[in-house]
Design a protein that fits this description.
With about 240 residues, the protein is of the alpha+beta class. The protein has helices at about 1-35, 45-55, 60-70, 105-115, 145-155, 180-190, 210-225, and strands at about 80-85, 95-100, 120-125, 130-140, 160-165, 170-175, 195-205, 205-210, 230-235, 240. The relative contact order is 0.15.
Length: about 240
Amino acid sequence: MGRAHEVRAASMAKTAAIKSKLYSRFGKELYIAAKNGVPDPDMNLALKRKIAEAKQNQVPADVIKRAIDKAKGGSDENYTECRYEGFGPGSSTVIVDCLTDNTNRSYTEVKTCFNKSKGAKLANAGAVSFNYENVGLFEFPYEDEDGMLEAMMEAEVDVQDISVEDGIMEVKTSFQDFGKAQDAIETLIPGVEFSVCEATMLPNEYVTLTDPEEVEAFNKLMSMLNDADDVNKIYTNVRSAE
């Protein structure tokens, strides 16, 4: 079958690993949302929004159902949120959010990733995150900026930016108003399909890595972090590394 078959097989394996990581992440987040309230999306707004986000990321219905059923079953699993900050190769910075049932294990995993990546090192809390902002971020097909701004103002959403490019609107809001903004968009555009719908962290400034050694080291760090079981989300100021 030759080299082409090997490349396809490797690509399929990589895709499967990415999906598995995504499903694991949402499984934990859905479980937490369901356990921290009523395990019914009609009575638990946080769970309802998390389900919507999972569906936008093409998480299968059975993954969503299993997570909620686990919470209904009274599972005693407890996950702790922990954050680690660090400096990567070149002028890159990295924030790593973990969801874990063992904080010692998650710290060891993340520290190992940084230690094995040339030019990377962990930093104290706040050393990196001070240069990021927490925001609600949405991307979806829509072009009426004035109409969107009016809808946001009526919903009393703190809008930071609205822009449109090639028919795709990007709305950035304050972190606290993420839920209100999502409701306002869905009311204005029934059946809207988000390509991005998340509460996230964005750097105040982006960097581009061009040095081959720095690019290789950064990509290695990202790959190792993505493979770590407890790592939930990764934020970085690198716009591109090529």
